[in-house]
Amino acid sequence: xxxxxxxxxxxxxxxxQSCTVACKSEWDVPNGSARTRVRNAGVRGDxxxxxxxxxxxxxxHCDHPTCVPACPSGATYQDGxxxxxxxxxxxxGCGSCVAACPYGARYIDAAKGVVDxxxxxxxxxxxxxxPACTLTCPANAKIFGDLEDTGSTVFNMVYRLGxxxxxxxxxxxxxxxxxxxxxxxxxxxxxxxxxxxxxxxxAGRVWSGFAKKVVYLAVGTTFLGQAVAxxxxxxxxxxxFDE
Amino acid sequence: xxSQTVPVVPAPLTFEESRLMAQSLIKKHQVAVVLLHWFxxxxxxxxxxxxxxxxxxxxxxxxxxxxxTMMQEMAGGRANLLRIHIxxxxxxxxxxxxxxxxxxxxxxxxxxxxxxxGLEGDDFRWLRIRIxxxxxxxxxxxxxxxxxxxxxxxxxxLIYAMVPIxxxxxxxxxxxxxxxxxxxxxxxxHFVAAGMVVSGLMIHVYMGAVFPEEKPAFYSMITGMVDELxxxxxxFKWWREVKLQQHEWQEGIENEGREAVLVAKRADDSNxxxxxxxxxxx
Amino acid sequence: xxxxxxxxQFFRNTTGTAAIVGTAIATASPQVHPPGLRGNTRVQQIAxxxxxxxxxxxxxxxxxxxxxxxxxxxxxHPLTKGKLCARGNAxxxxxxxxxxxxxxxxxxxxxGEGKFRRVSWDEALDFLGTKLKELKQKHGPExxxxxxxxxxxxxxxxxxxxxxxxxxxxxAFAQCRGPRDIGYQLTFGRPVNSPEPVDLEESKCxxxxxxxxxxxxxxxxxxxxAEGLSKGAKLIVVDPRFSTAxxxxxxWLPIKPGTDTALLLAWMNVxxxxxxxxxxxxxxxxxxxxxxxxHVGSYTxxxxxxxxxxxxxxxxxxxxxxxxxxxxxxxxxxxxxTWYGNDTQRARAMAILTALLGAYGRKGGLFLPTKLAIGRIxxxxxxxxxKPRADREANQYPLASEEAHGLTxxxxxxxxxEKPYPIKGWIVYGQNIxxxxxxxxQTLAAIKKLDFMAVVDVLPMEQTRYAxxxxxxxxxxxxxxxxxxxxxxxxxxxxxxxxAVEAMHESKPGWxxxxxxxxxxxxxxxxxxxxxxxxxxxxxxxxxxxxxxLKALGAVSFDGKPYIEDRGENDGPLFPTQSGKIExxxxxxxxxxxxxxxxxEAVEAPPEGYLRLIYGRSPVHxxxxxxxxxxxxxxxxxxxxxxxxxxxxxxxxxxxQKVILQNQDGVKSPAITLKVTPAMxxxxxxxxxxxxxxxxxxxxxxxxxxxxxxxxxxxxxxQLMGATGMRVNFVRVLPAERA
Lengths: 243, 282, 739
Description:
Largest sheet of chain A: 4 strands, mixed
Strand content of chain A: 15-25%
Radius of gyration of chain A: 25 Å
Shape of chain A: elongated
Number of helices of chain B: 11
Distance between the termini of chain B: 50 Å
Order of helices and strands of chain B: HEHHHHHHHHEHH
Oligomer: heterotrimer
CATH class of the largest domain in chain B: Mainly Alpha
Distance between the termini of chain A: 74 Å
CATH class of the largest domain in chain A: Alpha Beta
Largest sheet of chain B: 2 strands, antiparallel
Strand content of chain B: under 5%
CATH architecture of the largest domain in chain A: 2-Layer Sandwich
């Protein structure tokens, strides 16, 4: 059972966005959205001693994704290899999963009305190709592989060289995109873009709270009402109306 | 009974009157209504089955796991569940919309609406007494009802209110219309509206299919006809209207007949008079 | 009661509904990524090379049924090996750019009004022929100047030479690489060329002076850079701004702009006085060491500290770092080096430093090019010109001696002043003349003096508005261009450009336009090849490459001899200078009675309240070339102006504020966004070049951001070879409401 992961080498990444555009091209990502993003993590320090780095992010295919349980129809699911995927035929585009993702990895494709995100280029891998982003990266800063394969580069980088996950004290859902490099760079990238709180959309809160209660109450009451009527009917022995 | 003798309030019937009335049928529902009703029943059965199986998120789901798995397998995958749900829903909407467009003069006519959902004083009294009767807390008589009793009217009202919501929200979700915000709220409203209809169905199905007193009503949804006795007992005001119309018709025919006889007699008289005048010696 | 009607209706409805439901189901299941893309046998892979910048990385175009699906790197390309940058990937959006030039046009209104009428190619080319013949008759063929861009402009160069004009200039020389090519040629006997032969991946110490690799993205260069760093190479970055490269450096030297030569001389001083240079190498290969030693004696780090604003200790430390790593020290020669008008001498200093470290022709330093015996297409003798070149006076710019060393601003000046003779016609091929050449007011004034201007381009860049004739060229994805013959690669190679899809609209490839124009001018003999295949075959046949192999793979490489140790007797001179040695003291400059060794000359400081305007690149744009690209515009639509926190504070400006830049001559920029950062010097403002397009037909790019070129009303011309130094403009930063 493979456990796919990606490692970003902070020391190699130059923030050139080649991955962003290759992915956009491969998967028709609309303008204004991104499956993988590169952001500047800012600058720290006093003149002239500075530290600066980039943060490459995308769906982390977490060990315990918060998006999967958020999806009303189960369109979002995690397959046997740990990849979190979206079954577009089941997606209604409600965006509950978008709000539930602490990493902002998902987007609604306005043209198609459904949710989309990185799936580690599942279709490409099925054809024996590597993900579009890792292939195109000029700096070879993105590495994809199987953490169960002890000979893989990702295994080496995670378990021997200590590549880090971007987690916070509150959100520890086991993201499978790791960051390697100098501690000050890794730490800075993680601090600049920590995971947010997984949110539930207002409509969802109403559904699981008030709405559910109202419906249960209504159905329960009427059902009970009918049950009472039924027993009443049996008790009074009302027969076929016929005099 | 003649028109003069059509009672204004339901009076006790003689055995003979009851027997006669029990054998006489009057038309309650048109064929279109009958077909539409069963079409609805099938649609609702399918939609409730598939719809409830589509909701899997732990925060929102209400069906047990085995049910979800079973439905999924029957449909050949969850995506198919949604496809079926949408296909049926779309069909349902289109049928209704076409109906509304072509039959609006009939269906949305004030008279029809009054009959189906118009609540009057009698209805409110009926509701109170009916519930108390159920709880064995009164001995009052139920006030006379129209074609549909208060309970049925309330149910119809619920349907009229909920179905457009279900349709619109369904289409918003199925075709990702308007935007994410709309889809989110459509989800909740679709669920609540459907839930309300289900609670109405609890009563509707029980009353229609289980409660013996309403058995004629059930059969009327197949044949379109009810017997006069049932109508007299349960929907007096409607029975009276039908009866009056019948008498009117009868009287009309009779009047026409009488008119014809009088005309014939007058013609005859004038012929004889004319003949007498022509020949005084004959 | 309407019974029958409704019943019939009901049944009719259901059958009608079935059809609707069918489509409903279909639309209810949204389309995913084109199914079967990968396993689809209809998908072709066509190898070509990219032109989103000029590195010409290998590209694989995925095409199905004549439609371009995607671009990705060509794994067979020996240099880029399947990597492709953001702009390369975005070539799809260029192909489909709705603002592309679609058909030939002839001007109807006033020049600059932008009124054109659509014409057929025949009419357009006949018009071109007629006009050029007219000008030849009236003023002589020298009255027409060619402003090309890119190696693929060779067809137009041939055309105009055959026509009889010596006047052609592209910005690559005088607005970009010229000074370093001349500087290194004087020292080592070879220009630097492109791609730069810097052995970054094997280097032990990389030195970047005013070079911002990472923001400046040429795919294989980034790969080599990242590789070298990951192998432990030390990095020294000399830049007034803390660039992406600086963020990876062991040393960031925030040098005072214009003082790089002082630093270089001080480094030489340390290496020589502390005997850290590669003595064996110099003994064997170089001349002029003694003079150099004397020359740099006074250029101590302490002296340089005063000039450069860098601590003397840091200058020493970095010199030691380089010395430790020698000879695997890669001092990147830079690319755009036309800064202050003294840039050739600075390039000389960089070359000399490289030699002191023994790095030229060595692993990890600069490697040697390997020649390829490409075919030549024999042409008839080119007509001799009676008149001299118009871009300079007789003895001006002595080092810009070769034909390829045209001076764009010289031609513009000649047009404006009519000296040495009037230039009445311009052919502008793919050169964004108003944005690339500084002092655009001069350019606009010169255009007004023209009798005829023809523009050949892919997009309606600003100069299109001023043309009499506009010819739409097909994009690189739709055309054949001469192959890239790359010798400055460790494995020299040939990489082809072939059409991936058919040319859209009525656009045509440059070779066709040139060949058709040649017919009208009666110079078809200079285009003796029948078609692209014929042209390509003639070039590659001596190399023994098979056409179908080359077309399938996109590139074919050969064994190279990048290092001195690979070379033998039969490989030609290692240093093709006059003396055959590395000339630390330049004999050519000596002969010309110019400074044979680089001296430090201070540049003018910004006046009180002004900051120096410097500029650079973004990894998601290739200057104005990509500005209108829908995908790249989405990533970066504007160029903010960067200022240091200290300077912002003193001017009472805040991050994100809208400001206006006003230069020393009063020229103002439009309102732009200010970006405040602590990580840069306080005497400069910085921005990405290539924004602020003035061509209104570029719907996305038009007036997005601001043009740094528009603020370059002053230039500093390098007296050795005519390059226009552009970092000599100073600006005030004013809040937008006030100005």
